[in-house]
């Protein structure tokens, strides 16, 4: 019960509920004002204008938010006018419907914010079918009042932002820490749960993508919104938490272990991994707790549990050495030590977040040059060329625009033929459910139908219990607020609440409530069926056909990241901006690849080209970016020796192999050069460096020198890490090369059959 109360409290304090309240105020105030002025008939148009322009009100820079809402206002006004003026002429109406549907959908090529403006336009188009205005004056008044409503909502949004200026950023930071905490716990499970690794890895793909999306939004919000006069103390605090959250995520990514080696070394001694696993769990839970405190503003929990867990992980290394003895225990002990060092760094960043949250008035200063910070922003281009480049059937958005247009025309004509009472409900269901990917459309269709049925059942129970119009109005108002609050978190619940609000609103107009419920359920089912069939049959764009380009980008970014890490290793005293940028781009590329794989799993099995091979390539790319990150993280946090010629030769071979993998995907001819002898000699030389240090250490122990100084320890760690990771990376690149070769051959056959 306590946990449920806490979740409810977090929901009430969340920005999602805040936006729901914002919509509620945007609806209630116009009705109240026009009622007291005696012009209540004008209120619905103003409220509609406010409601239609809420989608563009998402976290981000104020400038982009204002621009999005202003464009949305103009867009919805023009679209509404177009439909209303076309209504008397069926051929013109169908042409207008087709044009608006296609154009509004196509502007989604300009990114997520543009897709929300697109949705506002489509929503305005559908709702215009329900508006009964015939004369030019009536139409112009309706459209003008909608514009006023849109401006009213923009003013209200800016007012809420003024009252709680950092609430969006706080929510994003909270969500980010929560996801990272869950991800850290998941990575701990990978250490020992051998039989569940495939399932756990697929779960990590989902979390990685969500974390990357949150960080991209936070970059835009925190870095792009810096004022010329500098940051406030609270902004400084948020930026510090954000920087630490990025470091934690990158550290987690950097410790993607070779689990085959882990299983081989600790197969019979997994008990020594339990302390590290438990530390991951405790740190993950602590991050989740901190994420909640960002919203609740309660006291920071004590750090003793964290310190004790870290101490236990260190003690596990000693116990392992005492049990297996040197030199047999050396390799396992080095793995445990490297793991411990990484977890210690994680704990330092968690404690940094704790300090910032506990001391808002005097946060440490973080110095980020404006020129450098701009390089980390993924800027959306809005040129006409982007639209032109997507004007072909190979474009996913272009196909979706055509598909949606045909589905909407079919739905409307179907409604005319069978004289369906509220045809626009069918159209509304289509635009809400239909997405570029089949899997997401299928998922939303299921949630929409289930949610509608739940809402209809609840409405039936309430109608049978009471016939109170005032209660219907109150419930409709509350339902729409909660629906808007939950639409991003739980679409099924939001669909149920939307159904409730619509039924109660119609019940105020039409006393035959059961007829309204019946039509609502029927029209939702028809719209969902049209959306599903259209996605499957009309210009289908299966994820398998998109994957190649995304995979190609991941390979190129991994290659770029590897070369940046090589440069860092050669000059470790300077942590270069180029390395950080390459790291960010590689993480983002692999995250996009993970997201593409998730969409692939939702497609029909007959359309999942080489599923297992694709999964292998996704996993190989993820493992590669983490292995590269391990080297970079070690170099940044340790004093290292100079990069050897052997290291550089292996790097050259790996990058050449990755380039060959890219060429396979591009179907280019490849001139393979036999570097087997050279690469094996270089890898042996790197391994010999570790062996020499290991033998020297054994000799010192035999002579009674059992104390291990930091320099020797770091030398052993470095030699072991570099030798093993170079061997690992070379093997990964070869596997990727072979996998891409098979994939390209299979791809040609698949595309012929599509």
Describe the protein:
By secondary structure, the protein is mainly α. It has four domains: 1-165, no CATH class; 167-365, Methane Monooxygenase Hydroxylase, Chain G, domain 1 (Up-down Bundle); 437-539, no CATH class; 543-753, Methane Monooxygenase Hydroxylase, Chain G, domain 1 (Up-down Bundle), CATH 1.20.58. 79% of the residues lie in helices and 0% in strands. The protein contains 28 helices and no strands. Helix 2 (15-37) runs antiparallel to helix 20 (469-486), helix 18 (423-433) packs across helix 22 and helix 23 (543-570) runs parallel beside helix 25 (611-637). It is elongated and about 100 Å long.
Features:
4 domains; Methane Monooxygenase Hydroxylase, Chain G, domain 1; mainly alpha; elongated; 754 residues
């Amino acid at each position: 019960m306590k946990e449920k109360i806490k979740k409810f409290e977090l929901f009430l304090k969340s920005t999602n509920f805040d936006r729901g309240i914002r919509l509620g105020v945007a609806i209630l105030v116009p009705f109240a004002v026009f009622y007291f002025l005696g012009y209540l008939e004008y209120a619905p148009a103003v409220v509609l204008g406010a409601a239609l322009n809420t989608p563009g009100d998402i976290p981000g820079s104020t400038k982009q938010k204002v621009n999005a809402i202003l464009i949305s206002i103009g867009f919805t006004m023009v679209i509404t006018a177009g439909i209303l003026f076309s209504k008397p002429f069926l051929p013109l109406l169908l042409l207008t419907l087709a044009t608006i549907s296609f154009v509004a959908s196509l502007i989604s090529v300009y990114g997520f914010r543009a897709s929300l403006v697109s949705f506002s336009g489509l929503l305005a188009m559908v709702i215009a079918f329900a508006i009964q205005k015939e004369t030019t004056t009536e139409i112009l008044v309706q459209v003008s009042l909608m514009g006023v409503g849109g401006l009213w909502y923009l003013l209200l949004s800016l007012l809420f932002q003024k009252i709680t200026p950092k609430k969006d950023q706080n929510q994003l930071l909270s969500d980010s820490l929560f996801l990272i905490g869950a991800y850290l716990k998941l990575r701990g499970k990978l250490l020992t749960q051998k039989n569940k690794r495939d399932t756990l890895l697929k779960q990590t793909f989902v979390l990685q993508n969500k974390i990357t999306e949150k960080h991209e939004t936070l970059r835009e919000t925190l870095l792009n919104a810096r004022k010329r006069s500098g940051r406030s103390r609270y902004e400084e605090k948020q930026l510090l938490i954000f920087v630490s959250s990025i470091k934690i995520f990158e550290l987690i990514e950097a410790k993607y272990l070779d689990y085959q080696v882990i299983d081989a070394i600790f197969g019979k001694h997994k008990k020594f991994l339990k302390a590290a696993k438990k530390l991951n769990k405790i740190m993950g839970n602590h991050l989740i707790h901190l994420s909640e405190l960002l919203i609740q503003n309660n006291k920071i929990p004590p750090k003793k549990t964290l310190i004790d867990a870290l101490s236990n992980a260190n003690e596990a290394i000693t116990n392992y050495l005492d049990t297996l003895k040197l030199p047999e225990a050396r390799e396992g002990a080095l793995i445990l030590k490297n793991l411990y060092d990484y977890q210690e760094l994680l704990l330092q960043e968690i404690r940094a977040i704790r300090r910032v949250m506990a001391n808002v008035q005097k946060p440490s200063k973080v110095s980020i040059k404006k020129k450098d910070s701009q390089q980390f922003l993924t800027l959306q281009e809005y040129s006409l060329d982007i639209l032109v480049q997507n004007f072909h059937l190979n474009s996913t958005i272009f196909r979706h625009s055509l598909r949606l247009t045909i589905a909407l025309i079919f739905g409307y004509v179907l409604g005319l033929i069978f004289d369906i009472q509220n045809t626009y409900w069918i159209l509304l269901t289509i635009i809400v459910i239909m997405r570029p990917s089949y899997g997401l459309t299928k998922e939303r269709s299921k949630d929409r139908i289930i949610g509608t049925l739940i809402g209809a059942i609840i409405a039936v129970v309430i109608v049978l219990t009471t016939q109170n119009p005032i209660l219907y109005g109150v419930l409709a108002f509350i339902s729409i607020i909660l629906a808007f609050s939950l639409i991003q978190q739980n679409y099924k619940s939001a669909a149920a609440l939307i159904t409730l609000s619509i039924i109660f609103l119609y019940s105020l107009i039409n006393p035959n409530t059961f007829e309204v419920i019946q039509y609502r359920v029927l029209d939702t089912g028809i719209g969902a069926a049209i959306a599903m069939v259209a996605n499957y049959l009309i210009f289908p764009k299966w994820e398998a056909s998109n994957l190649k380009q995304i995979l190609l980008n991941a390979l190129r970014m991994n290659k770029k990241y590897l070369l940046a890490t090589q440069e860092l290793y050669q000059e470790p005293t300077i942590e270069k901006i180029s390395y950080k940028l390459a790291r960010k781009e590689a993480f983002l590329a692999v995250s996009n690849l993970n997201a593409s794989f998730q969409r692939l799993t939702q497609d029909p099995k007959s359309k999942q080209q080489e599923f297992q091979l694709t999964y292998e390539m996704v996993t190989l790319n993820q493992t590669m970016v983490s292995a590269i990150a391990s080297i970079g993280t070690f170099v940044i946090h340790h004093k290292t020796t100079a990069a050897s010629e052997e290291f550089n030769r292996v790097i050259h071979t790996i990058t050449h192999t990755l380039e060959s993998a890219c060429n396979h995907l591009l179907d280019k001819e490849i001139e393979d050069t036999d570097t087997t002898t050279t690469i094996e000699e270089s890898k042996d030389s790197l391994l010999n460096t570790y062996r020499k240090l290991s033998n020297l250490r054994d000799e010192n122990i035999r002579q009674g020198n059992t104390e291990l100084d930091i320099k020797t320890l770091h030398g052993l760690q470095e030699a072991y890490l570099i030798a093993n990771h170079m061997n690992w990376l070379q093997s990964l690149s070869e596997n990727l090369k072979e996998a891409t070769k098979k994939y390209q051959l299979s791809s040609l056959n698949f595309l012929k059959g599509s």
